[in-house]
Amino acid sequence: NRDAEEVGPIRSARPYFVSKSLEHQAIYVHVGGSEEAYNFIKEEKIDDINEFVDFQPFWRSTDREPPHNLYTSTIKLRKEANKLGYIEMIKKQEYQFEIDRNESLTGRETDSIVIPYNSIYTVSYEYLPESMKYLRFMNGETHIDAKTKEQLAVDNIIIQFAGTKIIDEEGRMAVDFVGKGTGLLFFKGGSTEITWEKPDLRAKTLFLDKKGNRIALTHGNVWIQIVPSDLKIQY
C-alpha cells in the first residue's frame, strides 16, 4: 500500500518469471527476454511493460554497470499501465499460508541453511537467535540491501523443490511449477518438511503441512527459494 520510488534492477524476461506473474495476476515488467518468454507472454495474453517498447517509465542509474542499472518506480509504472489500457484489478484473495505469531516448528533446530545452486553460486542463511531472523549471504559474503545498507534479514524461509531442465545452448532453464512437490519451512530456528501443489498455471501455489492444511508462518517477511528437486541443501 506504499509507493516505491525506485524498483529494480529490472532484467530480461524468462518463462518461469512470467509464470509467477500469471499466478499473481500481475503486470509483468521486463527489459527484453528470451524467445520462449516472449511466446509465453503472447500465448497467455499477459499484460506487460517492456523497456524495449515502452521507454517512458525507465531510467538508467550511473552507479552500476549495464545490465544491472535499469530502474523504474511504482508511480511511473501505474502511469504507463493506464496509458497502455491495462486494468488494475484489486482482488481479495486467500493467503497462501496462515500467520501466527505464536507458531513454532517441531522439526530439528538449525542455525544455518546452505543452498549450493552450482559451483559459482551459493545462497546461505545464518540464524540470529536474538532477533529470531535469518541473515542472508551470497557466496559467503553478506547480502546487503542497496537502499538501507543493512544485511538482508528474513523471518520465514520456504524452500520449494521444483523440476528443472536446461533448454538451450545458452544454459537457460525451464522450471516446472505446476503439479505437486515437496519443500522445507524454516522460522525461529526450527524446521519442518512441507508439500506444495498448484493445479494449473493461473492457480496460486499452496504450501501445506503434513496434515494437508495450509502452513502457518510466524509474523514477518517471507522468502521463497526455488531449488532444483535433485539438489541437496545443508541445514
Automatic annotation (TrEMBL):
This is DUF3048 domain-containing protein. InterPro entries: DUF3048_C (IPR035328), DUF3048_N (IPR021416), YerB-like_sf (IPR023158). Pfam families: DUF3048 (PF11258), DUF3048_C (PF17479). Coiled coil: none annotated. Residues 2-86, 114-224 form the DUF3048 domain. Signal peptide: none annotated. Gene3D superfamilies: YerB-like.
